Structure formats: C-alpha cells, structure tokens
Amino acid sequence: MMQEKTTINSLRTTGRNLLEAAGIGSYAIDVDVLLMYVLGIDKNTLIADQSRLVDDTCANEFMKMIERRRENIPIQYLTGKCEFMSLEFDVNRNTLIPRPDTEILVETILAAEKNTRGLEIGVGTGCISISLEYHGEGIAMCGVDISPEAVRVAAQNHERILLCDGIFMVSDLFENVPHGAKFDFIVSNPPYIETDEIERLGSNVKDYEPQLALDGGPDGLDFYRRIVGQAAEYLVDGGRIYFEIGYNQARAVENILAAAGYVDIMILDDYAGKNRVVKARRMQNV
Fold first, then answer.
1. Taking the complete model, does pTM exceed 0.85, yes or no?
2. What span, in angstroms and rounded, lies between the C-alpha atoms of 107 and 87?
C-alpha cells in the first residue's frame, strides 16, 4: 500500500487535533504560526497552497514543535519570535514575552514625548525602548536590566531593528546608571505579580517565563516603591514617569507617587477597560 504523502493540509489537521485534545485554546492559530515558521512561508501561501508536499525533515520538525506546544510551552519561546508594535522581537526564556497590553504604555509615551531622552527600568527584550525609538519623534532611550541575558537580547533586537547599537546595561534598577545622568522621562513595566499569586498563574507563564520578571513581592508593589524612591535623582525638573500596572494596583501606585511628591498623576485604561498605565510628573524645583 502506498504511503500517504504529507501535505500542508494534513499537517495542519493533525496539529490542530493534537493541540485541541491537549486543551490549548489557541490551537488553530498556533498550528498556523508553527507551520509558517517551520516552512518559512507567509499566511497567504499557507492558505493558498494546502496541497503542497512537505519533506520529512520539515514535517518531523513541525511535529516536535507540536509536542512541545502540547506541554504548554509558550509559542513565542518555540519560535523565538514575538510581534510587538508591528515589530518582530527575538525572545527566549530569559525574557518576559511582550504583551499587547504593554502597547498602551508605549502609545501613551509616544503621544506625550517628542525630542526627549528616556530611561527604561527592566528592559527585557527591549520592546518598549526600541518601539519608542522606532515610532517616536526624536526619542532617545537607555535601558537597564538585572539580567545580563536580557540585556544581550535587547541589544540584539536593537541592532537588528534599528540598525545601530542601543544603550543597554546590566543594572539592578539605578545601581549602574551614572550619577548625574538626567532623563526627561523614566518608563518601567516592572514585576508586579504578588508572590503568592505566581503559583496560581497558568502553567505557560509560571513554568516557563522568568520569575525574576514576574515577582513583585508580597503585595506586588516592591518595584514601584524602589523605582519611585530613586527616580527623582535621575529626572529633570518636571520629568515624567510612566508605569505599567496590574489591573487592581492603580490607586496603590498613585499613592506611592503622590507621597513622593509627584503631581499630575493620571491613570489610563487598556482596550479591555482595565487600569493599565499610570503617568506622573516630578514637581519642578522652585
């Protein structure tokens, strides 16, 4: 009996069935992403060329990735890629996966900052800083992260996307930022999950994404306190601070900022109507 040939359609069907049976809610999208990645094709080719034959090497690679996805490994870690602000970023398990919600933070800054210099605390993949430089008008960024591997990934993304070196350094918050350096604004999407909540996160997050980028301490606010406690030293008079926050943290972060003398504090929602960004201004010295 002649063995049935492997086609895009047969792999697509097999992959969908396996991921759906494993309870992966995004099974249809994930299969298409993995097929496009393995075969090096775009969505139009995937849809239009369903009967195309796939060689054994590619078919086997695809099935191995399906098996790993069945273990709930995030698809971004399987492909090593993630889209953010219409740009493609390299990711790995040393970096938090960029979320669409964080685009609200970037859009807020893009609307307010022009020809300014910013510092990002906790740069991760570099998606915030790089997107601000790419889409912004004269925005120049520096970024720090406690993880040397994250800094390496951010630098790699900056060079590939912006075709020049970025200014990223290993630093525990402001520790290695030069004394006397001044910025027009500081931005951070810090770890803000409560320590006890991490074990209740989905396995695709708690088992694979770096805990260093998730754990915000007992109440999730540790890094907001630490950043606000030191930020004024590095901001120009009237400099701005922008935070991404958890949906239930707006008032607490607002209080931290107000207690430190920040003014014009605003809370902005994401597209789901949940509090997502807090912005504030350092009061000018008189």
1. yes
2. 14
* Calculated CA dihedral for residues 65, 34, 56, 40, nearest 10 degrees: -140
Distance between CA atoms of 254 and 248, rounded to whole angstroms? 12
> How do the pLDDT tens digits run along the chain, 286 residues long?
334 689 999 999 999 999 999 999 999 999 999 999 999 999 999 999 999 999 999 999 999 999 999 999 999 999 999 999 999 999 999 999 999 999 999 999 999 999 999 999 999 999 999 999 999 999 999 999 999 999 999 999 999 999 999 999 999 999 999 999 999 999 999 999 999 999 999 988 999 999 989 999 999 999 999 999 999 999 999 999 999 999 999 999 999 999 999 999 999 999 999 999 999 999 876 4
CA 257 to chain centroid, in Å, comes to 24
Out of 41, 71, 101, pick the residue that ends a domain: 71
Q: Are residues 17 and 120 in the same domain?
A: no
Strands 183-188, 262-269: pairing is unpaired
In this structure, the answer to whether residues 120 and 21 fall within a common structural domain is: no
Same domain, yes or no: 20 and 156: no
| Cβ-contact 71, 114 below 8 angstroms | no
Tokens 């695809």 found at: 62
